[in-house]
Write a structure and sequence with these properties.
Helices cover 41% and strands 16% of the residues. With 147 residues, it is of the alpha+beta class. The radius of gyration is 18 Å and the shape is flat.
Length: 147
């Protein structure tokens, strides 16, 4: 199901309307290729929507999360970030605590091991997330150190 169809279905189910503003935010959001903060989104949307406020953006992003279009992510730096929730896709994160670089990765061995540990403890996994924190090994290319 496309993000627009998913949003439309969620809005109809909850008696809400698809506004031009929600559609513009959705279109821009799904085009991001990274985890994005509300402040970054606001800056990127201001050209198309000069009257957009941060409170409206937060409400819209919460709506996208409820509709299954976005994931909220808060890493060690405390900033809220959003990422597009691709249906059927799961990935984990490695985060540099110096520069904030976020690397998405998938590892079948880790996923199977998590299932084994959960089964051993009598738990059926509904969801999970793995965030690994460290620092860039290549200090010359660490984003913060280059600034």
């Amino acid at each position: 199901m496309t993000p627009s169809a998913k949003l439309d279905a969620y809005l109809r189910q909850n008696g809400l309307k698809l506004t031009k503003q929600r559609q513009l935010i959705l279109d821009k959001f799904v085009s991001f290729d990274r985890h994005v903060t509300p402040d970054e989104m606001l800056a990127l949307l201001k050209g198309d929507m000069p009257n957009l406020g941060l409170a409206t953006l937060y409400r819209t992003m919460k709506l996208f999360v409820k509709a299954g279009i976005a994931h909220e992510r808060r890493f060690a730096d405390g900033l809220m970030r959003y990422e597009y929730a691709v249906e059927g896709e799961h990935h984990d994160h490695i985060i540099c605590t110096d520069c904030g670089l976020i690397i998405e990765f998938e590892d079948d061995t880790i996923e199977e091991r998590q299932r084994e540990v959960s089964r051993r403890h009598g738990i059926l996994i509904q969801s999970h997330r793995l965030d690994i924190y460290g620092t860039c090994i290549d200090v010359k290319n660490c984003q913060r150190r280059r600034k």
